[in-house]
Structures are given as C-alpha cells and as structure tokens.
Amino acid sequence: MSVSGEVSRRPSTTLLAAILRRLNGWLRRHIIVLNSECKDVGGCDAGSRQEKWLRADLAAHPVACTLAYWHKPLFSSGGTHGNDPEIKPIWQALYEANADVVVNGHDHDYERFAPQTPEAVADPARGIREFIVGTGGKNHRPFGATKPNSEVRDATTFGVLKLTLRANAYDWQFVPESGKTFTDSGSGTCH
After folding, report:
1. Any idea what the CATH number is for the domain that residue 63 is in?
2. Within-domain flag for 174
3. I need a surface site. Which of 48, 118, 149, 178 has the fewest CB within 10 A?
4. Residue 142's domain spans which residues?
5. 55: which DSSP letter?
6. Spatial separation of the C-alpha atoms in residues 178 and 122, rounded to whole Å
7. What value, to the nearest 5°, has the Cα angle with vertex 133 and ends 113 and 146?
8. Cα 96 vs. chain centroid, distance in angstroms?
C-alpha cells in the first residue's frame, strides 16, 4: 500500500521477502491425522493399508517438522487404558521418518513424554515427543504406574494444548480451564 491508500503495482522487496520467509516456515511442516481404531481400518500392523499409506506420505513429504495425531497412545501412564502396543508400527514408521511430535487422547488426563523411540528408550536426538491430552471435559481418571520417559502428568485439570509451530521448532503450552493453576510449557527443536 502506498501512503495515500492506493495499492502499489510492485510490492516492496522487503515485504515480498518477509512473506516468502513466513511461507517457507509453513511449508516445512507436515501434519498427519491417523485412525487408531485399528480394527475399523484393516489394522495398524506393519504392511497394513494405513501403515503403507503413512510410509508413502512421509516419503513424499520430507520436511523439517512432522506432527501426527490420533486417539489411542502407544505410551500412557493412564490407569484406565495405558499403553496401546497395537499402534507401534505406526509409531515406528514415524520414527524412521524423523517425526517430531505425536498428540493423542484416550486416557482422561494430561501427560507429556520426553522424546523416545518406539521401544520407550529416551532419544533426545531423534525421538518423538508424545502428548496425551484427554482433558476435554468428560471426567478425569487416575494414573497407573508411571511409564518410562514420562515428564509431566496431571489428572485434575481440564484444558487444551496450544502448539505453536515455528520454522524448525515448536512450542507447547497447556492452557487450563478458568480458575485452575496447573500448566505445562516448553519448546522443542525439529529433527
């Protein structure tokens, strides 16, 4: 825009560069939605239709930051459901493609895991950080035994997880319901 409010015929080089930098950051992300109701989609095992699709999708989108989400978690300290090993081949495909974040629900609590392998081994260099965010409003359920690499747990506060995806990193913040004080926040770097 010019000072008088008329649209300029040529965008300034600075403005164009700023727009391209912003777009470049967004183009380096990949968000994948999967179905963890494995029996309903022909399975989640290695070689299943969904697992093959995921591997092809990851190969077609070799980006700096990948986030995937689905309902049932591979790892969870939740006392009602806990770990769901049926989803492990999906996690394996994501790990092999250097995915960064997985978001799940299922257990009615909040839990954050340190980056880890599909075998639950801490891996700060290549591991996937998992968030369990089952804090949407039905009821809370108690935790069972704490699983390896679990860093933060809460089963008393409803709220949402705010994720900010940056060019080569991400920030998270658990935003609690009004009147509650539990929160969790931090940052991670993409692989």
Report:
1. 3.60.21.10
2. no
3. 178
4. 28-156
5. H
6. 34
7. 40
8. 16
Rounded to whole angstroms, the Cα distance separating 26 from 32 reads 14
Kindly state the tokens that stand for 42.
């022909």
Bridge partners, 45 (sequence order): none
When divided into structural domains, the chain yields a total of 1
DSSP secondary structure, 152-178, as one string: EEESS--EEEEEEE-SSEEEEEEEEPT
Taking each helix axis as running N to C, give the angle between helix 49-60 and helix 88-96, from 0 to 180 degrees, rounded to the nearest 10: 20
Cα–Cα distance for residue pair 29/40, rounded to 1 Å:
28
Q: Centre a 10 Å sphere on the Cβ of residue 101 and count the other Cβ atoms it contains.
A: 22
pTM for the predicted model, two decimal places: 0.85
Tell me the mean pLDDT per 10 residues along the chain, length 191. Answer: 39 54 61 94 96 96 90 94 94 97 94 98 98 89 96 96 90 96 96 89
